């Protein structure tokens, strides 16, 4: 074995060089930037298919806002199927896809951030509290929940203006109006009018409710997805379902979607109402709710506890497939990245 001038063998040098090349290759596909890109692209692909149920959910949640139920109360939307039919029949595909543009931007900000930073944040928490990284270690559910919640709240804060415009565009209807009607011509028109009405504070009105919503949902979603992915790959390995199997990703996502919806729906109702309310006098604050806690109180005291689960089925029909599509798309994008980058 020949030696180099610094005393190391040529084979050792070759191995060291190979290690550096491998490290660079791993760094490209395992970087935060690539994870952010994968999460953004996957979530945008998912929301393209699930946005109609988001429109239905938004209108069901705003229907009967702060009104006590009476036998003769007029409800344009009776259930998910009927609401879907009414919107599609009277407003067409464009009606069912209202808010898709700002929805894409919100998904990039929310899911790009929370999915891109979830693993790094989780590893930091593991090193702080267990002195090890999460790789090859038995999952610590509280740390996974904390990492998911922190990333979700950060993503919601960044994407709040787009969620604001999306919610208001989805609630607008000339045929069966519910909630306050804003009637923006486009996303840009909405952002401009909100800015003129209330400035930066107007653009970020309702951000606290969105952070609560995303924090609750993300902490459950990312932690339970990790758990059920490991569970199914362990229990069904004899059937060929390992951690990289699309069937494993599908099953884990399907179960995860239910738990996320169960936890997040009350926060989702509050967030929708906080965002859709008209501005207060002089553009300061909201006309109906000052903060999420007051919105919780007024909603429950007027409409009852079950009002917090308005639109639950529509929410799951949106969230379940969205979770499945997002994670399946993301895992496939990551697999492609590892092969080519």
TrEMBL record:
Localization of this protein: Mitochondrion inner membrane
Main location: mitochondrion
TM regions (residue ranges): 33-53, 141-164, 246-267
Keyword Ubl conjugation: no
InterPro entries named in the record: MCP_dom_sf, MCP_transmembrane, Mito_Carrier_Antiporter
Ranges occupied by Solcar repeats: 30-124, 139-231, 244-336
One term under GO cellular component: mitochondrial inner membrane
Bilayer disposition of the protein: Multi-pass membrane protein
Keyword Transmembrane helix attributed: yes
Coiled-coil features, chain-numbered ranges: none
Keywords, ordered alphabetically: Membrane, Mitochondrion, Mitochondrion inner membrane, Repeat, Transmembrane, Transmembrane helix, Transport
One Pfam family it belongs to: Mito_carr
Similarity annotation: Belongs to the mitochondrial carrier (TC 2.A.29) family.
The name this protein goes by in its record: Mitochondrial oxaloacetate carrier protein
């Amino acid at each position: 074995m020949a030696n180099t001038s610094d005393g190391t063998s040529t084979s050792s040098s070759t191995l060291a060089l190979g290690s550096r090349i491998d490290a660079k290759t791993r760094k490209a596909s395992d970087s935060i930037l690539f994870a952010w890109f994968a999460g953004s692209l996957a979530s945008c692909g998912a929301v393209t298919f699930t946005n109609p149920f988001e429109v239905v959910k938004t209108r069901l949640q705003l229907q009967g806002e702060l009104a006590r139920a009476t036998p003769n109360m007029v409800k344009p939307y009776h259930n998910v199927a009927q609401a879907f039919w009414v919107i599609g029949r009277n407003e067409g595909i464009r009606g069912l896809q209202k808010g898709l543009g700002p929805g894409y931007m919100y998904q990039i900000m929310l899911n790009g951030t929370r999915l891109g930073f979830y693993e790094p944040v989780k590893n930091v928490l593991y090193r702080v509290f267990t002195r090890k990284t999460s790789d090859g270690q038995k999952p610590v559910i509280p740390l996974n929940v904390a990492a998911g919640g922190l990333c979700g709240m950060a993503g919601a804060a960044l994407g709040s203006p787009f969620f604001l415009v999306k919610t208001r565009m989805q609630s607008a209807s000339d045929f069966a109006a519910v909630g306050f009607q804003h009637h923006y011509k486009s996303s840009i028109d909405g952002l401009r009018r909100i800015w003129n009405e209330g400035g930066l504070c107007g653009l970020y009105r309702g951000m606290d409710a969105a952070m609560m919503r995303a924090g609750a949902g993300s902490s459950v979603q990312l932690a339970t997805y990790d758990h059920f992915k490991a569970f199914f790959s362990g229990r069904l390995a004899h059937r060929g379902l390992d951690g990289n199997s699309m069937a494993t990703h599908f099953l884990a996502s399907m179960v995860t979607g239910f738990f996320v919806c169960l936890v997040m729906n009350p926060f989702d109702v509050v967030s929708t109402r906080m965002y859709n309310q008209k501005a207060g006098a002089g553009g300061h604050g909201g006309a109906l709710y000052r903060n999420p806690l007051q919105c919780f109180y007024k909603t429950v005291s007027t409409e009852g506890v079950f009002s917090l689960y308005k639109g639950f089925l529509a929410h799951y029909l949106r969230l379940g497939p969205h979770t499945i599509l997002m994670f399946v798309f993301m895992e496939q994008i990551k697999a492609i990245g590892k092969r080519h980058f």
